[in-house]
Amino acid sequence: MRESVLLFLIIVAGTGGELCVTRAMKAIGEVTDFRPMALLRFIAQAVRVGWMWLGVGLMALAFFSLLAMLSIENVSFVVPVTALHYVAGTIGAVLFLKERITPQRWIGVLVVCLGVTIVWLSRH
Amino acid sequence: MRESHGLHLKTYLFIFFIAIFAPLGNTLLGKGMRSVGQVRDFSPAALVETLIRVINSGYIWLGIASLLAFFVAYMLVLTWADYSFVQPASSFSYAVVAILSYWLLGEVVTPLRWLGILVICIGVLIVGRTHPKTTEESARA
Fold first, then answer.
1. Is A29 left (phi over 0), alpha (psi -120 to 50) or beta?
2. What angle is formed at CA B92 by the lines to CA B87 and CA B93, rounded to 5 degrees?
């Protein structure tokens, strides 16, 4: 039960954080100038976007959940099951970023789910 | 011709970095958390105590440094290579993490777990073979 909650936090908070940061980046626009002053202006712009703070907070939650999970389970178990973020990312991209997903990508996502299920079954 | 060869070499070198640094970072985090001990108590006081032990673990910092190296390599390679090429290539990191956890942590990786990792790699390869951009602009391009 504890492992399932931690895995849920790693996947949902991690993917949610990435989606929030993506939304913040899209709100700021494409970076074309890589000079130090321009990059500082870019960072100043980024920290004023609320989605960025939410994203960073969620990613931090996912990271600490990963550390807690690694204290309980083997690395060779934890890292493969986190591949579920491909599934959460695809669902999030449809709902949150309004992306269109091709049937081939859904097949790939289902194969990832199958692989994660097999790794989960190898737990004990 | 020579320029194209150089670009290929540079791309494969960075994908090698990605496939090594990400699993190495996770393996080091795993080693660090083993020395910290299992997180059983989720009360605020116990979590602060755990956090202090985490901050004092050298393996955790090495793991974070390795993950940062992965992130830099990933960002750099994406400035010249296609996401649809890089993403499936990096799926091999799932196999590398199993090898590293066996070598460095002495974990037992059962044949069933290897099978699951292989299926995950295939799934990521299928996802990576799809077009990386599916929004309106790409459809028009």
1. left
2. 90
Residues 75-94 of A with CB under 8 A from B: 75-80, 83, 86, 90
Gap between the Cα atoms of B103 and B41, Å rounded: 30
Distances in Å between the Cα of A49 and the Cα atoms of A28, A38, A53, B132 are 8, 17, 7, 26
- In the A/B pair of chains, how many CB contacts fall below 8 A? 131
DSSP string for residues in A44-91? HHHTT-HHHHHHHHHHHHHHHHHHHHHHHS-HHHHHHHGGGHHHHHHH
Largest CA distance in chain A: 54
| Per-residue model confidence as pLDDT tens for chain B (141 residues) | 556 667 677 888 888 898 899 999 999 999 999 888 887 777 888 888 888 888 888 999 999 999 989 888 887 777 777 766 676 777 788 888 888 998 998 888 899 989 988 998 888 888 777 665 555 544 443
Residues 17-56 of B with CB under 8 A from A: 23, 26-27, 29-30, 33-34, 36-39, 54
Name the residue with tokens 């949150």.
A96
For residue B101, which residues of chain A lie inside 8 Å, CB to CB? Answer: 74-76
Q: Whole-angstrom Cα distance, residue A10 to residue A31? A: 29
